[in-house]
C-alpha cells in the first residue's frame, strides 16, 4: 500500500482498476437494460426496435469480459485479483461480525477488500460466465445440440434475475458509502476511512 500523502489521502485504486470497474459496470447495465426491453412486455412495447435491442444485448454480453482481459495487462489490477482470490483468517471474523451485526470500530477486520467484496467478486464472475455460456447456446442453437434451447433460456433468465438483485444490493452499499465511491472515482480515500474499514490493509 502507498503511504498517505500530506493531505492524509491513501491511494486505493490506479487508473486500470477504475477503468475496468467503470467499463464493466456500463456494459453490465447495458445488458440488463436491453434485457428488460426484450422481456418486460410494457417496456418492450414502449421502446420497440426489438431487433436492435437484441443485437445490442448480444454484443454487450459478448464484450463483457473485455475490460477484465485488458485489465490483466496492468500489474496493479493483477495484484488486486490476487487479493480478491485469497481468504485470510480475519475474513472469517468479518463474516461472523456481519452475521452478528457487530459494527463498532475494529469489529470487522479487512484487508484492501473485505470478505463480502471477495464473495461478491467471485459470485459475479461465475454468474457472468454462466450468462455468456447460456447466451451463446441461445444464439447458436446447434452449438451443443444435447442441451435444449428451453433449458438454456430457463437458466439464463434465473441467473439474470439473481444478478439484478445482487447488483441492486451492490449499488445500495456503494450509495451508502461516499468515501468508497470517492476511492473508485478518484483513486484516493482518507486514511481515517481506510483505518476504520480496512485496517489490515494498512498493516
How does this model look, in words?
By secondary structure, the protein is mostly helical. The protein has two domains: 14-86; 88-202, Fumarate Reductase Cytochrome B subunit, CATH 1.20.950.20. Helix content is 71%, strand content 3%. It has helices spanning 15-39, 41-47, 50-63, 66-71, 75-84, 89-99, 115-139, 149-175, 178-186, 191-197, 199-202; strands at 9-11, 188-190. α7 (115-139) runs antiparallel to α8 (149-175). The protein is elongated. The protein starts with 8 loop residues before the first strand and ends with a helix. The model has no long low-confidence stretch (mean pLDDT 91).
Question: What would a concise description of this structure say?
Answer:
This protein has 203 residues and is mainly alpha-helical. It is built from eleven helices and two strands, in the order βαααααααααβαα.
